[in-house]
Design brief:
heterotrimer; A: alpha+beta; Alpha-Beta Plaits; 4-stranded mixed β-sheet; two-stranded antiparallel ribbon; about 30% helix; C: Formate dehydrogenase/DMSO reductase fold; 13 helices; globular
Amino acid sequence: MNPVDKRRRDFLGQAAVAAGAMIAPGVFLYDYAKAAAPATPPAGPPATSGPVSAKVRWGMLIDTTKCASGCRECVDACNRENGLPGTTRPTDSQWIRKVDLKDLRSGATLSAPVMCQHCAEPPCVDVCPTGASFKRADGIVLVDRHTCIGCRYCMMACPYKARSFVHEPTTGQKTEVPRGKGCVEACTLCVQRVDRGGRPACAESCEAAGHGAILFGDLNDPQSEISKRIRSVATTQLRADLRTDNGVRYQGL
Amino acid sequence: MAAFRLAARAAAALLAAALALAAGPVAVAAGPKLDAPRSGPCVEDPKLMRRSHMEFLKHDRDDTVRRGVRPAKHSLAGCVSCHASRADDSVLGSDTHFCQGCHVYAAVKLDCFECHTPKARPAAVASAAGEPLR
Amino acid sequence: MATSSASQARLAWSLLAAGGAVVAVALGAAHYMEVHGHVVTGMNNQVVWGLPHVFAIFLIVAASGALNVASIGSVFGEKAYKPFAPLSVLLTVALLAGGLMVLVLDLGRPERLVVAATHYNFRSIFAWNMILYNGLFALCAVYLWTLAERRFAAAAKPAGLAAFAWRIILTTGTGSIFGFLVARQAYASGVIAPLFIALSLAWGLAVFQLAQAGFARLSGSAMDAALQARVRRLLGIFLVAALYFVVVHHLTNLYWARQAALERFLLVDGAPYPAVFWLGYVVAGTVVPVALVFHPKLAGPRATNAAAALAVLGALAFLYVFIIGGQAFPLEIFPGYEASSSFGDGRVDRYSPSLPELLLGLGGLAAAFVIALAGARALPILPRDEGPVAPAPKPAA
């Protein structure tokens, strides 16, 4: 809806309520005052957010030297937070996965979580025919599942195999994380938490488990912990050759 | 498809007009019998809501999904938290459940609840916003 | 000539009914897929495009190539081909519609087609293709009209030229759906657009040949031998040209060390793909038909039809390896490491198609068949065909 429409609708709405108020007893006036108040929620915590701005760019730094192979804290936390079943058939969604790696020359092994890399130049967004794949102003790459038609071209385009297609009807979704059959989905960097000043469930759980291998923060803020770390240690981006400028960085790869 | 939407809209307009013309309680008696809201008031005047809730929802949906505005005034999670049945915490399930009852009556089909939970969050029932942060 | 018009009509009606039945089964299969979700197909999070896409891409690529005969007739002024131009245009429309039907019914949310029509992301080659497909329908309609109406004969050439240019762009677009996938080793390549154009010429002509021969049976008006010989030779040339581009594509991949493992998988040890490629595409789909077409002893309508049918089978084999084999091989996300995970990293996917997706794909072929047959009976398409314009007695079906 364009702003003009919105304003017209707001006006119509208020006019309708005002008309009601003129003929109705006082209780209506009270309702009107409430209804016309700016976008405050009717009840609940005062924390409101948005619209998000391009001043921040959310990102994560994953320190593979601290990531324990065999540990699945981040994966479990993600499944819990986002209401994913956590099963691992080839048709099941996995927003984050632990990849075990063996260096082909040295034979050294390491382990790292892989999720949507929240690219600044996301190939999935370029190819999406309806614009359902999009990048928020703050750098989070999402699927708008109201306009996703389920063509899966974004999954073809993603260099990181980060996206999943919902192959079956879903049940038991969390209030904050709707998800359903026929659409593509992926790590949202836990927008529902980040927008309220929190951090992604994986980062939180990794710290709680005592590893601290996932650092979340604002890449645009030179004073943020993540920016400082990226300045001081060598970090890499997956498939850096593609120049997608990932929001997720790796240390120790 | 377009013709269908047009017909649905016409039906909705008729319904809205009927509801608006008849004085409040009489209209409700004439229409479907729905679960009473758990708290109030509604996010807009109920009359306006009857007519325009789909527009509000679609507008605020884009605000939340695309621009991170949350909670939006017309949040779907919010509707559910107030309008879910006291008996089973849901807005769907029978023809007295709030969203389903009216849509069955108006012959509207929604896909929203394929993804969105129709259940109010048991703990924070009155809260249209999210869980408190840890 | 030989058969009476009543028995021809009866045959046409029963063919239409058979085609319609296959389409109905396909719609049922698509509905089943929609209710249960894509778990009932072989597709998964690694092989995201499966058998339906093999059929859909075949139909769409062949659609553009089927316009060949019309182009040669009106654009390049080869008079002999002109009587067959309307059939060629009709086939384009039919194949394109069949392909799009499959593509749409395979969507995760086909009911949101309205969204696809109203929300365009102009950076997406996919969105461009939707415009190109619809444009081709429109151009074909105009072109067909100019061919049918004597008054507009002068407009036939520009209309044909426009349709010709459009379908070259369209096939470039279809190829680029894959060619632009920079992250995918199997696809990212500029060769794919010209490869698809070469494939479209061959596949389109093969379908045209089969349709032409079929309609000759139905209407009793066969293509004359000289023209038949030219179509036959052309088919052979196109098949060789397509093979040439396929070879170039694999050679470029082989030259680049990073792709060696993928090429090995597709061409040597990644069962079943090497067998499908070598036996299905190279031998049955190219070498045998080319031999059939060029061998002086074999020359004849029978051999040409066999060659065309084999070329179609070869096309499906090629696309199976190209689309499914290309995805089954794992993406290389960590060069220099051996990767493993619960999400198929470093592991070849064991895709096997399911019945519903096969039925959906076959339904696309059947839809094209039905549209072509119905179109040819309803419109003045066939050469020397009086069509229903003459008040012929209605055949008892």
